[in-house]
Design a protein that fits this description.
Radius of gyration: 18 Å
Number of strands: 0
Amino acid sequence: MTCINRHDLGLLVLRLGTGAVLGAHGAQKLFGWFGGGGLAGTAAGMEHMGFLPGRRSAIAAGLGEAGGGALLALGLATPAAGAAAAGAMAGAVAVHAPAGFFAQSGGYEYPAFLGFTAAVIGLTGPGRLSLDRATCHRFDQPWTVGVAFAGSALAVVAVLGKRIRAQAAAVAAADSEADAE
């Protein structure tokens, strides 16, 4: 019989804590729980931040956080869960980056920490106290790590690239309008 060791217990606690925080953030976006804006409010905020279309961006961010967080907490499909949550947090980092690093000035410290933690769990694996282990790692195969993180990285590059182009177009339009006056 195998005893529960500190490694497995530590991964369980880390997964539960990280998953709960991510899940709560996603629930704010998707359902308006915990004082969040819900889908309509989040979609408007996403549009304002340059993520177009706003509703689709809100759903993607909410699912990346809530879905990735729930799966991390359960230790199910851990590579995909970690990659999805890390990708969602990369978008949040991009939004907060102009304010610098530290959270007290609106910086990206907090979403970066959540993203790195989710990524580390996705790369490390869930430990023995997980649904991945209970399902004989059916959703946690070695090849899924590379596929999940590559897919997430490609999605982040595409989404942030589209945001940058939209912001540049908005600045150019504002400049043209100012020149016309």
